[in-house]
TrEMBL record:
Keyword annotations from UniProtKB, A to Z: DNA-binding, Homeobox, Nucleus
Residue range(s) of DNA binding per entry: 72-131
Name this polypeptide is given: Homeobox protein vex1
GO cellular component: nucleus
Ranges of Basic and acidic residues composition bias in the record: 48-64
Entries under InterPro entries matching the protein: HD (IPR001356), HD_metazoa (IPR020479), Homeobox_CS (IPR017970), Homeobox_TF (IPR050848), Homeodomain-like_sf (IPR009057)
Keyword Chaperone: no
PANTHER family in alphabetical order: HOMEO BOX HB9 LIKE A-RELATED (PTHR24333), HOMEOBOX DOMAIN-CONTAINING PROTEIN (PTHR24333:SF14)
Domain Homeobox: 70-130
Localization of this protein: Nucleus
Amino acid sequence: MEKGPFSVEWLAQSSRGGAQPAAAARRPRSPGKGVSSPPDAPVPAAALRDREAAHRSSPGHEAEAGGGAAPPGRPRTKFSAAQLQELERSFREQRYIGASEKRRLAAVLNLSQSQIKTWFQNRRMKFKRQTQDAR
């Protein structure tokens, strides 16, 4: 019986220095990672985010960023006056947005649901700061 490249027996053998299949020998292993995925398997998005976060928090990365510049990624959304007016109106009615209202606003304002959710989170924090400052 031939043992497959990711069977328990093969992993035990390979950890003791046994032979590796050709595909696994060609693929470099990531240091500190557990069992590697098959050679053609896509890298999960969570793994990419973890790598990016580790890179940003690594020593010396502050110098690369240019002294406090935002990390590369999605540019800040500039909301139009009409979008802000509708978002503020909805916020006055209810500070916590439901799923159906979020979908409706996203469609009406031509924004993503995550942008709506983030706007409401930020607006609640602004409201909290304003009420604390007023006291």
